[in-house]
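TA notes, week 10

Several of you asked for a full example with nothing omitted. So below is the full record: structure tokens for the whole chain, then the designed sequence directly under it. When grading your own attempts, check the secondary structure regions first.
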């Protein structure tokens, strides 16, 4: 039976190899979109989230989005790209450019909040994001709220991230994917549980060669790099300068005490 830690390492290695190969491959089936200014970026976000890139809930063709200049949007909070209904599927290449915005997320009660709200089978790379705050409920991170089979690399972000659970500086929740060569500076705050300087919840994946600096806080499952520390998670060659705070609450009622006991049991399984 394969060791789950080894499986996590293999997943990250596979993502690196896949990305390297995809950078060299050309295909006529890809839909290539180059964004050169803030207006084009806002239009892309609105069109994608309204389903204009889909037919019968299916993406028309694999999408390749590239930034050809820096983007600045300071008059409004950005809406996350992609949702459970229309997940982002494809490649986003920032080409080293910077997106500056006052915030990401329109409401504190939303799940899956980040530059990408919900990404699936995707590659997100080479972008810098400077923002004041990213706010949501569950699955909250500056680059991506929820990432499934998605590889994120060479991303640099700064700002404060706030949510209830599964909150991270780069990604809120990641399953079967990897994060490499990323840099986060800011504060990560979970009013509930599972918070990390790089990623909140990480399942069957890894974080390599990444840095986190600032403060991370929550009730349970709080870690400077990954909020989860399980056998199926690999953290390697990472540096943290995070102040870790485990929040406590007194005068809890019976319902809250029971909920806390259940959470502890889940993390011990």
């Amino acid at each position: 039976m394969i060791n789950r830690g080894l499986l996590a390492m293999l997943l990250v290695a596979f993502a690196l190899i896949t990305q390297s190969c995809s950078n060299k491959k050309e295909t006529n089936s890809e839909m290539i979109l180059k964004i050169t200014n803030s207006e084009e970026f806002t239009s892309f976000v609105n069109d994608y989230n309204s389903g204009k890139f889909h037919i019968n809930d299916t993406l028309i063709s694999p999408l390749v989005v590239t930034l050809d200049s820096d983007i600045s949007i300071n008059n409004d909070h950005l809406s996350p790209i992609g949702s459970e209904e229309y997940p982002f599927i494809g490649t986003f290449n920032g080409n080293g450019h910077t997106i500056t915005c006052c915030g990401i997320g329109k409401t504190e009660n939303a799940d899956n909040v980040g530059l990408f709200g919900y990404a699936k089978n995707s590659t997100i790379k080479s972008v810098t994001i400077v923002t004041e705050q990213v706010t949501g409920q569950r699955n909250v991170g500056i680059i991506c709220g929820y990432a499934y089979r998605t590889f994120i690399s060479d991303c640099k972000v700064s700002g404060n991230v706030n949510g209830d659970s599964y909150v991270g500086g780069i990604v809120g929740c990641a399953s079967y994917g990897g994060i490499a060569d990323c840099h986060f500076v800011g504060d990560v705050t979970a009013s509930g549980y599972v918070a990390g300087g790089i990623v909140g919840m990480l399942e069957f994946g890894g974080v390599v060669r990444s840095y986190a600096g600032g403060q991370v806080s929550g009730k349970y499952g709080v870690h400077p790099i990954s909020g989860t520390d399980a056998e199926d998670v690999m953290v390697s060659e990472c540096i943290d300068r995070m102040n870790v705070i485990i929040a406590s609450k007194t005068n809890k009622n019976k319902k809250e005490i029971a909920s806390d006991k259940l959470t502890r049991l889940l993390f011990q399984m």
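The chain has one domain: 4-268. Use that as a sanity check on your answer.
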